[in-house]
């Protein structure tokens, strides 16, 4: 996120309104939210919800997954991902590009870039998807 957004004096209040709605508003009751803590300190957060595209081949959308840099590689990211999207569940997400570390993390968990790109808040993002094939019937 650009510094201009993070430095905006109204940013904390806007984030508080966002999280209050995300956690309490019935419109978002199908979302899953998880936090990771270490020694009583918040180190990461993740949130998913139903697919934003009814015609999509995936059922979940990963809205966010953040882990503080000091905790990269500790398993916190995988635990958060698994808490909000079931293993083997099809899903999509948008990730900043370039962001090789995050993109490698998602590839490790079965996501691939599908060629879609967008610019949001001045950040170029690519879409990554994980489509799960139904098991073939036994012969």
TrEMBL record:
GO terms for molecular function: acyltransferase activity, transferring groups other than amino-acyl groups. InterPro entries: Acyl_CoA_acyltransferase (IPR016181), GNAT_dom (IPR000182). Keywords: Transferase. Pfam families: Acetyltransf_1. It comes from the Bacteria. CDD domains: NAT_SF (cd04301). Residues 1-133 form the N-acetyltransferase domain. Transmembrane segments: none annotated. This is Acetyltransferase (GNAT) family protein. It comes from Actinoplanes xinjiangensis.
């Amino acid at each position: 996120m650009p510094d201009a957004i993070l430095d905006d004096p109204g940013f904390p209040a806007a984030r508080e309104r966002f999280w209050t709605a995300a956690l309490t508003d019935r419109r978002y009751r199908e979302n899953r939210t998880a936090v990771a803590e270490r020694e009583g300190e918040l180190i990461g957060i993740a949130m998913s919800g139903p697919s934003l595209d009814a015609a999509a081949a995936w059922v979940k959308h990963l809205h966010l997954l953040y882990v503080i840099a000091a905790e990269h590689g500790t398993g916190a990211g995988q635990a958060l991902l698994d808490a909000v999207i079931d293993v083997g569940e099809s899903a999509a997400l948008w990730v900043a590009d370039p962001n090789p570390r995050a993109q490698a993390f998602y590839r490790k968990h079965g996501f691939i870039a599908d060629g879609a790109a967008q610019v949001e808040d001045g950040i170029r993002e690519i879409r990554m998807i994980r489509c799960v094939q139904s098991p073939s019937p036994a012969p």
